[in-house]
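Translate structure to sequence.
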């Protein structure tokens, strides 16, 4: 009886069939059945089957925190340290130039970061497309962030952002789909030194270099020495200008 009632409810409810991918050549092409009335059943299942997921063992160490706290940036492919975030190459890249932008703070969500860290994070993300275009001549960029294990985050305890350059000529997706094999045909060390200058330059734009200790700058005599050098240049160019103008002045007399 229950089955008959459920079958009648299916027949009496509007169901739409739409195409998920418009391109029939796409290997992921498949139709999609749109059945919104089943949401009520899905919600019941989620409430009854939801279980806490342990994302961190008792004595485990966050790999991102380990990289941030390490002093060997080259070994860890950490390119640039900003005030609140770091940029490093992904050790398991989806594409040539795949980078990770990682906050220094060990937090799970963007909302847990303080405002300065989020603002800096967005400035770095915004610059990625232009950097990829300049360094790799890329055609597009993927920016991705997964919050939580259910969303696909492999390290859900420490929020991180993926930035990936994309190319219209890239055909490696087929071997990844069919053979479940990822092809890495680039040198990570070479990529590191290709990208590092661009992100270092971005840091200089965000944080113009300033003298750390103004008092020491004056007391050490450095200020006086630099002023003296400037005055010497002024006197030199002043003397040169006078010598150059002397014949003209004499002619006028």
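Result:
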């Amino acid at each position: 009886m229950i089955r008959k009632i459920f079958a009648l409810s299916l027949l009496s409810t509007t169901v739409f069939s739409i195409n998920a991918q418009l391109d029939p050549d796409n290997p992921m092409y498949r139709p999609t059945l749109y059945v919104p009335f089943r949401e009520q059943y899905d919600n019941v299942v989620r409430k009854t089957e939801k279980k806490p997921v342990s994302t961190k063992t008792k004595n485990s160490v966050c790999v991102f925190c380990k990289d941030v706290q390490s002093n060997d940036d080259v070994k860890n492919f950490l390119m640039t340290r900003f005030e609140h975030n770091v940029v490093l190459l992904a050790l398991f890249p989806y594409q040539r130039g795949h980078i990770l932008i990682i906050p220094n703070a060990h937090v799970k969500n963007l909302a847990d970061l303080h405002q300065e860290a989020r603002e800096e994070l967005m400035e770095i993300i915004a610059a990625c497309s232009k950097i990829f275009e300049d360094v790799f001549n890329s055609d597009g960029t993927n920016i991705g962030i997964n919050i939580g294990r259910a969303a696909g985050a492999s390290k859900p305890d420490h929020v991180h952002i993926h930035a990936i350059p994309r190319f219209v000529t890239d055909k490696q997706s087929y071997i990844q789909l069919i053979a479940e094999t990822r092809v890495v045909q680039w040198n990570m060390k070479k990529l590191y030194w290709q990208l590092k200058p661009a992100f270092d330059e971005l840091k200089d734009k965000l944080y113009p270099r300033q003298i750390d200790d103004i008092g020491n700058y004056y007391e050490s005599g450095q200020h006086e020495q630099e002023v003296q050098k400037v005055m010497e240049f002024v006197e030199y160019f002043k003397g040169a200008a006078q010598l150059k103008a002397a014949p003209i002045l004499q002619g006028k007399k």
